[in-house]
Design a protein that fits this description.
Chains A, B: Keywords: FAD, Flavoprotein, Oxidoreductase. Chains A, B: Belongs to the PheA/TfdB FAD monooxygenase family. The structure is a homodimer. By secondary structure, chain A is an alpha+beta fold. The first copy, chain A, has three domains: about 15-80 and about 145-200 and about 215-265 and about 365-465, 3-Layer(bba) Sandwich (FAD/NAD(P)-binding domain), CATH 3.50.50; about 105-145 and about 265-360, D-Amino Acid Oxidase, subunit A, domain 2 (D-Amino Acid Oxidase, Chain A, domain 2), CATH 3.30.9.10; about 490-665, Phenol hydroxylase, C-terminal dimerisation domain (Glutaredoxin), CATH 3.40.30. Chain A has 14 helices and 32 strands. In chain A, the strands form seven sheets. In chain A, strands 2, 3, 9, 10, 12, 13, 19 and 20 form an eight-stranded mixed sheet that branches. An eight-stranded mixed sheet of chain A has the order 7-6-15-16-17-14-18-21, sandwiched between helices. Chain A is globular. The interface between A and B is large, with 48 and 49 residues.
Chain lengths: ~675, ~675
């Protein structure tokens, strides 16, 4: 008879491969009327089914990794506050295969209108300029709008058909214990969590201290990825969970953060804002543009939302007599708004949500704990002003950074305990600096609202680049390797943004086989695969062509790489080799290239979609990839792209040893 | 006690508004153990749930029109043969709101490779040229590939949530009677149909005489839009149907066509083809391009499909010894293919379907019957060679043409019986000539395959335009009105393709309110609304501005139009007034325009999305709409666009009487 996992008495649970007959957990069903249920074993327990938790779970589609997500909410978020999606977040959705659905529902932001006080000393505000919301480096729209609940909807529906991922709503963890004695061993379940059902008071589903109108879940909808029906008494899931890893995606008031003794460092600011989502009845002409309305009494940020709504961030009596947000009334917030927007009217059609808050700018002192068996993601470890639209985006991007590392680890692709821990440690070493930078940026950004600046437009454009994540560069690690002999990051050593640690800049090329154009990030689906991307130059030239052949033959035969680039079985290779050339397509014969560039499978034929050309497309113009990436068409280069689309290494085009070195450094197989 | 509708004893059933107590049909449930069920009343009975039937049904989303679709198949098509989607068909999907899903799954066709015999007299074929598959008039990809079952899937899922539309699979009509005595009265149900359950032999779901591998439905899945569950004994739907209208979308062997005594006119050709869908193992370099492989023994058309498949249309011993398609074996077809494709190899990975056929080129002598109470759509009234990819496209377009006319009629928007019939008659007068043109085209197209032509590339490009539907022009009628005083169609009288009877050429503009770019057809959702599209010119100029104001005020106050353009209630107007100007956006104040251009609703705020500017967009360049449509920026014009995106009238910009005349001609309210 299995013994019970009691909170507070941590013990190490081994999985099937290692289980002795005395294993405390059984894989066989137990009659519930005979004894309390044994613990359920999962590979990964995610606390919180918001944007971060769902984004994390999406990494485990198509695997046999058991994932359990618990959330105290009674069901999917009926209305979240976040709405803006940066293009880098949209690239993540592309990689998850939900880009088209998200894009179809989203609304693009095209321009920013700046309004200010009249130069002639008259009253009221006037339009000063309209700034196109365009970042040349991106080559595509920088931000789109889709409300959080729809973003969550698409991420949720993308995992529902995967039996290995289960979601339990109205469920909260009440204790967690980690057996540190076995955290270094693979295939152990050191995390013990006890769960309880939450009887939801539908008036408190929103954890914020908002004092306005809230929308709530109206039904306690249960989603269970394994059987799709609401559990009843006889198949009630166990409330004891044994997990290999636990991740807290449980928001600003994270329960897991408290259990892990992680503290948030930073301060409350002295900025108090009202935030209002309403259908406006207003004669203000730019109501469907992002507007900065800069008057003497402060700056309103106005953002158009879906359903004819706009959101306004309204400064309320900043400066001397700082009010307590709790004392603010809707009328007082709207009065402050009307004062700034005058001479234009601002009547209220309907209000779907409003709140008042003082900005907290804080970052967790740890992002992972307990030998990388427990992690914190998103709002759980950083809070800041919502104005830059960074909450949902950064949460999703945190999760995206962590997910592939857990996936590789849990699939047994990382060979040693040390290498596993090295890889998982990069979550904190990569994402904590991003959060710290974000707070630093946020302080400056808030100042923009406090006092009109002479360089307002320049600063806004800088801010747009920053908030899109274009300045993020992860430090060197096992997953970000600098060229041999170079130990310091140095952009001057390498070209443009094609440097280790940065996101692979997106670019548009056409498929060699059929001329169909694609953005590269759309092609890089989140399969957990690395990509070795060979920018082979003009391979109609015999030197470049021979070089590409030699590289292809080497990769396909290399003792250390062969099994990851060309696995014997029908399974997907861990490393996909891609070619981007810049020759005329009709001078290139795809099927004459080495097999690693167009592998054959008896089951499904040739893979025609690994070779790309940087040429004019029939309908969409020329992507000019080599030019954008500043790659010499004669010299070329080879880039190792991580499963999350960040650059792991930049090498000379034929540096096959460099490729071997990268994967040896990662210790994957 | 209601009496039974007996097949062969037609009787006129009136609906609730006209029902006497002696009405043979009751709206109230009857206990099934007391008597045989009474007939079920529906507004529209659609026979066949293929592309045509589903496209037709999509017109009735969001209405209270009761639609019943029956199909003898046990469930959705698991695999249809069609795959190509013309851009004009994709515009229909856009209008149905499923464009993004369809596009996301589709594969674009970018280019066409022409191969021919060697000029030097050597053996085997060589690539002669690659023609970009680009039609300048379209400005967007001309054709995409998505297999029929997925196309049907998206159309089906788009109607499932609408309670007014029901689908019954495994159900076939066995008799139909139309009471001609009341076909002129509105709100009568002259069509009586008796249905029966079909016990499906899963080996005969495909009605074609194919002799190859077929995929079949594996489950007898029932979809019932009204209650979503499989009917059981106690809530079995009645098998007697009384309908206002019946439409046969039941394919080449149409049951309804036979009942209506419609005959197909035309011939079997002397061309015998094998058609094969396979995963090729071939070293032919253009296997992912559309290819015409022209050898002495005939021309193969090779089309890449999804899932690494290609389709080949292979001529088999054309000329003297014409084989019977039934005698052809797969090996014989493949041998013919290999002979043409030599010196390249063509081995078979796997075959998902193959068939052999002789082309029939026939058109029905009627498209509607019985005072426009019964209609035939798609393959039911025209068959032709599948090579031009016209089957699924023309079927969907037929249905799209008919659907809005039935919708208007069934919603009671057409005031007189005569006007209703005039409108419904335009289905035949508009679509039958299209089918006849298609057959004429098909004859020439087939010749291209029989004998190599010197002008092959020119003819192919001409064919591309034709098959995309760009030459379709509907004749004058109540729905296509020529300018006053002009009775003959004459392109020379009017500019470019902006002429009555043609599809509104698609163009890209940006929304005045927010700068977001859109293609116009994406904006023209299939709501059944007409659009009065005012190309107002440069309204930063005071003359043009005043003109636009005057037109807007007139339309909003006109006795005959006011209630259709600005209904009192919250209901959607039957006519949406749109403005496309070419002024700089910042010189235009949207909210200062007359209300008809930006109406207010207490429920949902301003409608900001009726005014467009032909200007440079922030991310997508300049759509140059005025230039493409050849509209003079000083003069402008006003276009009445029908609910199906075809042009009803082209008028002078301020010809408000012309607008009144159009809707008086249609007799709608």
């Amino acid at each position: 008879m299995p013994t019970l996992q009691v909170p507070g008495t941590p013990r190490c649970v081994h999985d099937k491969h290692h289980a002795s007959t005395a294993s405390p957990c059984s894989d066989y069903p137990i009659l519930h009327n005979m004894s309390p249920p044994a613990s359920t074993k999962v590979d990964l327990l995610i606390v919180g089914a918001g944007p971060a938790g769902l984004a994390l779970a999406n990494w485990f589609r198509g695997t046999n990794i058991k994932v359990l997500i618990v959330d105290k909410k009674p069901g999917p978020t009926p209305r979240g506050q976040a709405e803006g999606l940066k293009s880098t977040t949209n690239e993540i959705f592309d990689s998850y295969g939900i880009g088209p659905q998200v894009t179809a529902e989203s609304w693009r932001l095209e321009e920013i209108a700046c309004w200010g006080t009249r130069k002639d000393g008259g009253e009221g505000i006037v339009r000063e300029q309209v700034i196109p919301d365009r970042v040349a480096e991106l080559g595509k729209p920088r931000e789109t709008m889709l409300q959080q609940s729809r973003v969550e909807h698409h991420m949720l529906h993308n995992i529902l058909s995967h039996d290995n991922i289960e979601i339990r709503y109205s469920t909260a963890p009440i204790s967690v214990d980690v057996d540190t004695s076995c955290v270094h061993e693979a295939d152990t379940f050191p995390v013990s969590v006890s769960l309880e059902k939450v009887t939801t008071n539908t008036n408190t589903t929103n954890g914020d201290t908002t004092n306005g109108t809230n929308c709530h879940a109206t039904n306690g909808h249960h989603i269970n990825g394994q059987n799709g029906h609401q559990p009843n008494e006889h198949d009630a899931p166990s409330d004891m969970i044994s997990a290999k890893y636990i991740v807290g995606c449980d928001g600003a008031r994270s329960w897991l953060r408290k259990q892990l003794d992680v503290s948030l460092e930073g301060d409350l600011t002295d900025s108090v804002f009202g935030v209002v989502d309403l259908v406006p009845k207003s004669n203000f002409p730019d109501i469907r543009r992002v507007c900065y309305l800069r008057a003497a009494s402060g700056t309103i940020l106005l953002v158009p939302r879906s359903n004819k709504e706009v959101r306004m961030y309204i400064p309320v009596e900043s400066g001397t007599a700082l009010p307590d947000p709790k004392d603010l009334t809707f009328d007082r917030v709207m009065d402050a708004a009307r004062k700034i927007i005058a001479p234009y009217t601002m009547e209220v059609g309907s209000v779907s949500w409003w709140s008042a808050y003082r900005v907290r700018q804080r970052v967790g002192n740890h992002f992972s704990r307990l030998n990388e068996r427990a992690f914190l993601v998103g709002d759980a470890v950083h809070t800041h002003s919502p104005k830059a639209g960074q909450g949902m985006n950064t949460s999703i991007q945190d999760a995206y950074n962590l997910g592939w590392k857990l996936r590789l680890t849990l699939r047994g692709k990382v060979r040693s305990s040390g290498a596993r821990q090295d890889l998982l440690r990069t979550y904190e070493s990569e994402r904590r600096p991003v959060a710290l930078d974000l707070i630093a940026f946020d302080k400056g950004f808030l100042k923009l609202f406090a006092a009109p600046s002479a360089q307002f437009d320049t600063e806004i454009l800088q801010a747009l680049k920053f908030t899109t994540g274009l300045s993020i560069r992860y430090p060197p690690s096992c997953a970000v390797q600098l060229p041999k002999g170079i130990e310091q990051l140095g952009p001057s050593l390498l070209k443009a943004d094609l440097v280790p640690g940065k996101r692979l800049p997106d670019f548009r090329v056409v498929y060699q086989a059929d001329g169909v154009p694609t953005w590269m990030h759309k092609r890089l689906s989140a399969t957990g695969q690395f990509r070795v991307m060979i920018f082979a130059g003009d391979i109609s030239d015999s030197t470049a062509s021979k070089r590409l052949h030699d590289v292809g033959k080497y990769l396909g035969e290399s003792k250390s790489l062969k099994h990851v680039v060309m696995p014997q079985s029908e399974q997907e290779p861990l490393v996909e080799v891609l070619v981007v050339h810049c020759a005329e397509r009709d001078l290139v014969d795809l099927l004459a290239l080495p097999e690693v560039y167009r592998p054959w499978s008896d089951e499904s034929g040739y893979d025609f979609w690994r070779v790309f050309a940087d040429v004019e497309s029939v309908h969409d113009g020329h992507g000019k990839a080599y030019e954008r990436l500043e790659i010499d068409r004669q010299v070329g280069c080879t880039v190792v792209v991580r499963p999350d689309g960040y650059i792991g290494a930049v090498l000379e085009v034929d540096d096959v040893e460099g490729v071997e070195r990268y994967f040896e450094g990662m210790n994957v197989s």
